[in-house]
Design brief:
heterodimer, A: 305 residues, mainly alpha, MetI-like fold, B: 299 residues, transmembrane helix (chain B)
């Protein structure tokens, strides 16, 4: 240990003359990330070609797990549910976050106070949010009868036509605050001179929004959208506690399907195959969104500032 | 990024210089943004109503829960539900959550800070490719790896220990921490490093004596952000622990649900109790957290 430190320090001081710090400084983070993220990623691919019940021996099984996963109609359904959740929650969250972010970035004091309150859902765990909404949405003792609005007194979580929208709403409730913050930060980076110029040109608030704010927020949108879409692939705990995938299979999205296959049905091989599918979808979506943004981000962001 | 660009631009008339926040909507003769305000207040109601419901319900007794209007505060508020939850080993779960959170966040900050320093100040293929790997980590739903992680933890005989939760939590916190910390690290003026280098300081010294103190707000922000995630984490505890002695708070909420079945007020009291520590932390550090997060993600 001691010798490693001295060597790395010597390298450090030699390199510091020209190149900056030694690469050793990234090593601890890299080791953690390799052991608990990169190796497991390889592991999930390997395990998808085995059969394992979670306790006994791991046996190589060729494409057996893949065959069962790909022919199982529940997988197709899980993919469909996941796709719906990604699209719906994007359509709901993105505009709300954008508008709230632009609004709370204003200099007025009360807007800053609103931003403080908007953050509160992020303090709750997904388990807590799910439990709270389960009680709140109860058709007999929840918000519906409390506010005396019969339309709100439905069996929200028991109706397979409605439950997906409830899940999307609860997800938005929990995560819009986070994306609002991202947009708020993005708007604050826009040079004031652009607004002054727009004002001199006689542009009103709406024109300024569409011709200054929106184009300038392009990269913020990509960041937020990437986190939103990749995040949608990780909605596990919220749905697990809120609906457990039900009623029937109507909210059994891919991560939940993976968990239930692996840890409830004890088919770790099939669950790993589902994990691989999850990773591939995440990567493809993220790369697609980055591609939308194009290259050379920092150079163009401040053009004309 | 913004500041470096500005340094390169020759000084211009003060009127066109960038300002910390564009003061829109405050100029003379501007109409107030009525539609915007309306939307903002509606969203506030959407946020606050469930919170209000949870709090008032947790103060009702069971009979009161079934008889009073669900959206009305209890006629005789009671703390019995809180007492019931506290008697159910809540302190133990709280302590477990605290150990796991502190035990993950501090090492994660330490290694991420060092990595961010090297990524911003250093060069070479090793640093560059590590940085790319971390960025890729942001694009991958890391939870897809729970099965191999479960296998590794059981093979290492760590199943059902708090360490089993701490180790993967550190790894999962690294990509986002490195990203945000690097963004802030880029804003530390190069001149400061240069002058310390002329004084003969090594990078190791500059990292702790110069970069760390200057970046304290960013480090605190990232720390709180990670703490939120670990404190509220549910999936790792669910698959890597089993016994009540290693149970953390989010998992305890889930088990309370079964234990208390029809006693909704008690379940909601446990929700309030589990969130209270974060609420206190937030009230104390809200300004720093909000400004740090808005800046950290939008660079």
């Amino acid at each position: 240990m001691a010798s490693i430190t001295t060597t790395s320090r010597r390298t450090l001081s030699r390199q510091s003359l020209s190149k900056g710090p030694s690469g050793w400084l990234v090593a601890p983070a890299l080791v953690f990330f390799l052991v608990f993220a990169v190796i497991p990623l390889a592991g999930v691919l390997f395990l998808s070609f085995t059969s394992w019940d979670g306790l006994g021996e791991i046996r190589l099984d060729g494409v057996g797990s893949w065959a069962s996963v790909l022919t199982d109609p529940v997988t197709g359904n899980a993919l469909l549910v996941t796709a719906k959740i990604i699209v719906y929650s994007f359509v709901v969250q993105a505009p709300i976050s954008l508008l709230l972010g632009v609004f709370t970035s204003g200099a007025q004091k009360y807007r800053a106070a609103l931003a403080v309150l908007y953050f509160v859902p992020l303090l709750l765990s997904s388990a807590a949010v799910a439990i709270a909404f389960k009680a709140l949405l109860d058709p007999n003792f929840g918000m519906g009868p409390g506010l005396g609005i019969p339309a709100l007194a439905q069996d929200w979580l028991g109706n397979s036509d409605l439950v997906l929208f409830v899940v999307v709403f609860v997800i938005a409730w929990q995560f819009v605050p986070f994306h609002t913050l991202i947009y708020q930060g993005g708007v604050r980076q826009i040079p004031a001179s652009l607004y002054e110029a727009a004002q001199i040109d006689g542009a009103g608030r709406i024109k300024q929004f569409f011709h200054v704010t929106l184009p300038q927020l392009k990269y913020t949108m990509i960041t937020s959208s990437t986190l939103m879409v990749v995040g949608s692939l990780a909605y596990f705990d919220l749905v697990f506690v809120l609906t457990a995938g039900g009623p029937g299979y109507s909210t059994r999205l891919l991560p939940l399907h993976m968990y239930l296959t692996g840890f409830k049905a004890n088919d770790m091989g099939a669950a790993s195959a589902l994990g691989v599918i999850l990773v591939v979808i995440g990567l493809v979506l993220a790369l697609f969104l980055q591609r939308l943004g194009g290259r050379n981000r920092s150079a163009s962001q401040l053009e004309g500032a | 990024m913004a500041s470096t660009t500005q340094l390169a631009v020759p000084p211009v008339a003060p009127a066109t210089r960038r300002q910390p926040a564009p003061r829109r909507g405050k100029g003379p003769g501007r109409r107030p943004n009525l539609i915007g305000s309306l939307g903002a207040w509606i969203w506030l109601a959407v946020i606050i109503l469930p919170v209000y419901y949870v709090i008032i319900t947790s103060l009702k007794d069971q009979a009161g829960f079934f008889t009073t209007n669900p959206m009305m505060p209890p006629t005789e508020p009671t703390l019995d539900n809180y007492k019931l939850v506290l008697e159910k080993d809540f302190a133990k779960y709280f302590a477990n959550s605290l150990i796991v959170t502190v035990g993950s966040v501090i090492p994660a900050l330490l290694v991420s800070f060092m990595a961010a320093y090297a990524i911003v100040r250093g060069s070479g293929w090793f640093i560059t490719s590590t940085s790319k790997l971390f960025l890729l980590g942001l694009a991958i739903p890391l939870h897809a790896t729970i099965i191999p992680i479960y296998w590794m933890i059981t093979r290492a005989h760590m199943y059902d220990t708090l360490l089993a939760l701490i180790l993967p939590s550190i790894a999962f916190a690294i990509p986002i921490s490195v990203l945000i910390l690097s963004n802030f690290m880029r804003d530390v003026p190069n001149e400061l490093f240069e002058s310390m280098r002329l004084d003969g300081c090594s990078d190791w010294t500059m990292m702790w004596r110069l970069a760390l103190p200057l970046m304290r707000p960013a480090v605190v922000t990232v720390g709180i952000y990670n703490a939120l995630h670990v404190w509220n984490g549910f999936l790792f505890p669910l698959i890597l622990t089993q016994s009540p002695s290693t149970r953390v708070l989010p998992l305890s909420l889930w088990t309370f649900q079964d234990e208390f079945t029809a006693n909704i007020p008690a379940v909601l009291a446990s929700v309030v109790l589990a969130t209270l520590p974060l609420l206190v932390l937030y009230v104390m550090a809200r300004r720093q957290l909000l400004s740090g997060l808005t800046a950290g993600f939008s660079k």
